[in-house]
Structure formats: structure tokens, C-alpha cells
Amino acid sequence: MTTLLEFKNVSKQYGHDTKALSDVSFAVKEGEFVSIIGPSGAGKSTLLRCINRMIDASSGEIIFDGANVMDFRKKELKKLRTRIGMIFQHYNLVNRLSVIENVLHGRLGYKSTLAGVLGLYTEEEKQQAYSILRILGLEDHIYKRCDQLSGGQKQRVGIARALVQNPKMLLCDEPIASLDPNASRIIMEHLKNISSSMGITVIINLHQVDVALKYSDRIIGVNKGRVVYDGTPDGVKTNELQSIYGTDFGKTVDEQGGQHAG
Ligand SMILES: Nc1ncnc2c1ncn2[C@@H]1O[C@H](COP(=O)(O)OP(=O)(O)OP(=O)(O)O)[C@@H](O)[C@H]1O
Ligand SMILES: [Mg+2]
After folding, report:
1. How far is the CA of 52 from the centre of ligand 1 (A)?
2. Using an 8 Å Cβ cutoff, are 138 and 156 in contact?
3. What is the domain-level CATH number for residue 37?
4. Residue range of the domain that includes 52
5. Number of domains into which the chain is organized
6. C-alpha to C-alpha distance for 84 and 64, rounded to whole angstroms
7. Listed residues 166, 194, 221: the one ending a domain
8. Residue list, ligand 1 pocket, CB within 6 Å
9. pLDDT tens-digit profile of 17-45?
10. Atom 31 (ligand 1): residue with closest C-alpha?
11. Cβ(129)–Cβ(160) under 8 Å?
12. What digits encode the pLDDT tens for the residues 110-162?
């Protein structure tokens, strides 16, 4: 399989004293399903957002499909962002618009500003949107306003919006953090299916280790801006979890020497 994405010694500095990423290197193959895990503040969101340049890395190279995205100017950036779909914890939908309108927004990157403003979509684009909504089990909600949907349904709209872009890769920043276990499972199964049946590469930030281990081809563990694990889910044992989450991982507050409240 060919490499789709490669980080080469990528660092990101915010201001003077926060180094969010330190010398991060890894490669992702086409079609791979990769989870990024690590404690809060480890740099997971920063890492994900450097890929589509929502955040600019400070140094290193980020090679996507053969080109260094850090060199991209306006026009190349617009094209890059059509090829990389993004899915957010809080969905980022326009609540007063319908499901289908939100999904068609995924096509805006391909349009002139005027066509976008006028909401001019081709019949083909609408058919594609309908068919993706059917795959995601949203066929009964196509004309509903998004504020009438459950969290799990909203996230499926977010996935549909990303898919109509015809992306090569999906970046998902804690897509299930606001969902209950059942809705989470449905979202993860859709993402897994998208990766295996459509060949779309998925990179996903997760706080739930069990979920990451269950669905991923590969796990990247990050601690304080550094990659401390890069391998299969099978290789993630207690020692690896301790290097990712810290040596207190798995201990109770008492065992950590914490104090009782009251
Ligand atoms: N815009 C910013 N300006 C300054 N510092 C920032 C900014 N964004 C993030 N940071 C800092 O960079 C580090 C990494 O943050 P990041 O959001 O990437 O972590 P994360 O792993 O996604 O955390 P979480 O699991 O809580 O979402 C943290 O120390 C954070 O405070
Ligand atoms: Mg984050």
C-alpha cells in the first residue's frame, strides 16, 4: 500500500513557552484507520489540524499525497481542504438549515463564491448527497432542521457533509466525545465502514482507549507533544498505556497518593 500522509520531524510552538508538538514523525498508508490517543493537552488536536493547515506547524514537513502542505498557498490550500474531510466533536452544523443543505455545504470547496452563495448544486451533487444520507441511515430526516436531531444523528450529518467532498482522508477530532455508548458505536461502525469499503483513510482522536483498540488498524500514542507509541492495537499493554498516559495510569486516586475530599 502506498503512503498517503507523512509527518517528518514536525514541531508546533504556541507563543514562547508551549511546545504542543515536538519532532513528530510517522507515516499513514492509504486506507488505514489510525487512532491518536493521549491525555488532555498532549497535542492530538494540534496534530490533526496541522494536516489541513487549520493550524500552521512551526517546523518539519507534512507530506500529503506527495506534496508538502506547509508550502501550500491559497489555491492549493483550498484544493487540499476538499480532499480532506473534517469531523468535529460539536458537529459544526448550521442548526437552522436542513440536513440536506448542511450536507451540500460539503460541496462548497468545489464552487465559485457566487454559485455557493446562491446554493446552486447540480442534480448529480444532490443525488450523491441523498445516497450518502441513505448509507448513514438518515433517509427519514433529509428535510429536517439540524436542531431537531439527536447528537448521533447530527454527527452522521457531519460525516455525510465530509463524504460529499469525495475526500481521500477524514480527520475526526473526538467525534464521539459528546455521544452515549450506543450512538458512539454507530458512529464508529460508520467510520470503519467508510474506511474499509470506500478506501478512505481515517485519522481519529479519541479519549476512549477501548474504542480506539477495537476499531483501529494502528494506534499512535502521544504524550506531551511526542509520539511515544506507534504500532498495532495488540501491542498496547499496561506499559504502553503508562508511557502514553503517565505512570499513574490505571491507579485509583488513593494509589496515586491523592487526598479524600471532606
Ligand atoms: N491556540 C493555542 N494557543 C496557545 N496554546 C495552545 C493553543 N491550542 C492549544 N494549545 C496548547 O497546546 C497543547 C496541546 O493542545 P491540544 O489542544 O492539541 O491537545 P489535545 O491533546 O487535543 O487535548 P484534549 O484531549 O484536551 O483535546 C496544550 O498545552 C494546549 O494548552
Ligand atoms: Mg483536542
Report:
1. 17
2. yes
3. 3.40.50.300
4. 1-83+169-262
5. 2
6. 10
7. 166
8. 14-15, 18, 20, 38, 40-46
9. 899 999 999 999 999 999 999 999 999 99
10. 41
11. yes
12. 888 777 777 789 999 999 999 999 999 999 999 999 999 999 999 999 999 99
